[in-house]
Amino acid sequence: MIMILGFKKQFVDKILNGTKIHTIREDRNNRWKTGNKIHFATGIRTRNYNQFYQGTCKLVQDIEIIHTTGYTQIFIDGNSYFDVFHHGFDNIYEYTQLLKEFAINDGFDTVESFFEWFDQDFKGKLIHWTDFEYLPF
After folding, report:
1. In the 3-class helix/strand/coil scheme, how is 11-24 assigned residue by residue?
2. How remote is the C-alpha of 98 from its chain's centroid?
3. How far apart are CA 13 and CA 20, in angstroms?
4. For the chain, where are the alpha helices, taking DSSP H only?
5. Are the C-beta atoms of residues 56 and 63 closer than 8 Å to each other?
6. Which residues pair with 50 in a beta bridge?
7. What is the pLDDT of residues 42-91, one digit of tens each?
8. Which residues, including other chains, have CB under 8 Å from residue 82's CB and lie 6 or more apart?
């Protein structure tokens, strides 16, 4: 099966140069499966549609992001993978190097920019097109 993944233009170069190695998406109908062919594109459902890359879904992991006052947890496959502390209204985060690598792997330059994008509780899928995998500790 061929699946189309739509991206903002800011992620194209990071996908093409290999620094963005996965994406986080809602998947209410459980459509994403290992082995699916992926067409990477911008301008989905517009006349500016541009397929810029092709790949294969190598792995799908469950992901959940839960925000509480001063604290955020990220679960991957049900395991608490990242615990993030943030202070006040300044968005000063305390986090590990592993979380910084996770944000970069998802195409963000900083943890702060990742949390600007994912600023609400979220439940979905982590879609991989490389052999990289987040394993439980």
Report:
1. HHHHHHCCCCCEEE
2. 14
3. 9
4. 12-16, 97-105, 111-117
5. no
6. 42
7. 999 999 999 999 999 999 999 999 998 878 889 999 988 877 766 554 55
8. 72, 73, 74, 95, 96, 98, 99, 102
Query: Is 90 exceeded by the pLDDT of residue 30?
Result: yes
Strands (DSSP E) contained in the chain are 2-6, 22-25, 37-42, 50-56, 59-68, 71-76, 79-87, 92-94, 122-128
Please give the Cα distance from 136 to 25 (Å, whole number).
21
* Region of residue 23 (left: phi > 0; alpha: psi -120 to 50; beta: else): beta
Identity of the amino acid at 58: K
Angle at CA 9, nearest 5°, toward 5 and 14? 80
Q: Tokens representing 57?
A: 């879904």
| pTM score | 0.90
Which tokens in the block code for residue 86? 């943030």
